[in-house]
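User: I'm preparing a small set of examples for a lab meeting where we compare how different chains pack in three dimensions. I only have the primary sequence for this one, and I'd like the structure in token form so I can line it up with the others. Please keep the answer compact; I'll paste it straight into my notes.
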Amino acid sequence: MSDVARHPWWLSPVAVLGTAVMGLLGATWRVEWIDTAERDAALARGETWIFALWHSRLLALTWLHRHRDAGVLISRHRDGELIARVVRRLGYHTPRGSSTRGGEAGTLEMLRLARAGHLIAFTPDGPRGPAEKVKDGVVWLASRSGLPVVPAAAASRPEWRMRSWDGFRVPRPFARVVVGYGAPVRVPPDLDEAGLAHWRSVIEEGVAAVTRRMDERVRGDA
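Assistant: Understood. Below is the structure token output for the 222-residue chain.
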């Protein structure tokens, strides 16, 4: 069945409009990269890794890391199709799947991209929560690919917060947006259930820590 037959006609123009709106909004932000020089240098050397970030911080980080040829796992639901079309226009690869629909196929495609040398972005609490709780997917991917997990976060002020399961955040026009990374986490191969639980906890604390640090920075506490 063709893509046109499976999806309503309006998805393509809405994706174009959504990309344009994101671009107009992002162009107004006052962005500060906090202690990211080491990661930028590694990227320039051709190194790759798995970014782990909370779903609520997705919008700013997606815009600010556009056109880096990264892979991002996106839900197979209809809202996921719209998001996939937007982020493809921003230069991302978009394997489809989630913890509830097509997760295995999507994660295997992410593994293929990782092994092919692409950056990977993963929202380990997505697509439906619980918020800020890491699930197994990112741990499995890191274990199988050998890539380190780099916690990432963005914080903004002022911002809109959506009435969604994660309190999704949208930086307002001309907002101050700060972006930072945490220390890489290297997950060993061949994990058992206890190992998965341990490394979920390690990654969760890493993402939480850099998120707290960016929140403090944007408030002026640090």
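A couple of notes for your slides: The chain has eight helices and six strands. The domain at 3-219 is CATH 3.40.1130.10 (Glycerol-3-phosphate (1)-acyltransferase).

User: Perfect, thanks.
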